[in-house]
Specification:
Helix content is 22%, strand content 33%. It has 311 residues and is an alpha+beta fold. Mean pLDDT is 84; it is low at 1-7 and 27-43.
Amino acid sequence: MKAKTKLDTFNKILSIICVITFIALICVIMFVDGKQAQAPVEEGGGDDVSVLDAEFTPGTYGGVEFNSVEDVVAYYVEAFDYTKTLTASYTENGESKTYYKLLADESLAVENLLVEGNSNDMINKLVPGILDSIFKGAPKGIPVAANRDPVYDQRDDGPGGSKLDQTHSHLTADDVLACNVVDNGDGTISITIQPKGVILSQADQDAQGRFFNVLGDISSTVESISVLSFSEGTIDENFVVNYQGGTGTVKINTSTKEIVEADYTMKVHIDVRHANVAVLKDKKASLDIIYTNHAPASDEFLLESRNITRN
């Protein structure tokens, strides 16, 4: 169950998104009457601004003093690293396994699918079925993570082609657009972090890649779609992947610095421009990807996704 090289799990997710985008592009333009399309919808993107309800205010939370964003990030990193040293016993398909104590689930949704700037009810109804048939979530450690087994929680596409150890967080204060801390009044605090927006995020090489399970390089994936070409410009210019507006919230036991609950929501907006698909020329499409991880994963998710039970 080692993390795969090159076209790894996250690029496979991107392949799924590509397939959905181009199926929609062909269906809408070739088979759907223009009168059935809804009115044009404003496409995604925009300024990279905070989506948090409240900004960070220096103070003492749960007995811990935070004077700066640097303090918040340092505490998050310390809690992340400690939590990923903790393991537990599981049974998978009848075999005893040792995985992370805190396992997260994963889910993927596609929203705001627009073709030539229009939304279409028929395509919107088809997308969930397509997605459910080809994307099957699996338990992992809390992001950033490629595996549920700490021994294999690494990627081979780190900076300069290096192996990326994901048992440690490499997040820095400079990666953070906004954050806040809440005292839950029960011996825990909740830290929420919004990393800065990035175009085409790479694992461990930018703010999003040091916080989420990002998709990685798209060039080889897009180039592998034989029916696709572009009427002008390059892949990087015409297949724009914008990571922006995602957040992660972790609940930390301040007496142990263990993360006991976590929710990560990665948001990605994809614009396809000047696309030639089969007989279709110079078309555009866009969509939003919502990729979420919640920890602890439920017993039902563990069992249904990989036949895993907690011991």
